[in-house]
């Protein structure tokens, strides 16, 4: 999914166990609804851009997965 742009509506965000597995530590996620359904993206790098851009549930956003690392992904929100 490296360097893929995902566009849609922000449906949820917050902290939860990584990949919703209670064995994992908490991580920040955003959930985006696209034409193909809801997609959840994980990464601590998501929280600051979300807050900086004052994004909230219902906003249309574009997310770019820049593909750094295997478990920590970096994203740009517009």
- Strand sequence of the main sheet, in spatial order? 3-2-1-4-5
Low-confidence stretches: 69-74
User: End-to-end span in angstroms?
Assistant: 18 Å
Query: SSE order, as H and E?
Result: EEEHEE
Shape label? globular
Query: What's the total helix number?
Result: 1
Helix percentage: under 10%
Structural class: mainly beta
* Share of β-strand residues: over 45%
Q: Report mean pLDDT, rounded to a whole number.
A: 81
Largest beta sheet, briefly? 5 strands, antiparallel
Q: Based on DSSP secondary structure assignment, what is the total number of beta strands? A: 5
Rg for CA atoms: 12 Å
Quick rundown:
This protein has one helix at 47-52, and strands at residues 4-17, 26-34, 37-42, 60-65, 75-77. With 78 residues, it is mainly beta.
What does this protein structure show overall?
By secondary structure, the protein is mainly beta. It has 1 helix and 5 strands, in the order E-E-E-H-E-E. It is globular.
